[in-house]
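S1.2 Input.
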Amino acid sequence: MFTAATQFKIAKKTYLKPEMFYQWQDDKQEWVFGTLVKYYIKDLTNDRIAVMGGAYWRVGDSWVPGFRLEYNNLTLGFSYDINTSKLTTASNFNGGFEASIIYIIKYKKKKYPYNFCPFLWM
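S1.3 Output.
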């Protein structure tokens, strides 16, 4: 599995977030590309709230419009998968709701308890 994402500032509180995802198992593979627009309602160092909306394309299979709400390290996502592949005969373009929960654990390195002098080790 491989995933990549970035964000570019396009206005004072607004960012563009292109993302991509690739996974494979045996001879099967899946590519997903998408872009979200992220707007910060509150953007303080230890207190952030943002809303995001956009769409993804699962290559050859479906379109996925979605919405996310971000609060500090926690993100709640809601989307709807619209089938556009050969399965539309069975699905009649009906998709399914999807929900996601993302929690980012931030790790801080402990500071050295005393000042390090490199000359002591020479």
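S1.4 Remarks. Helices lie at 88-91.
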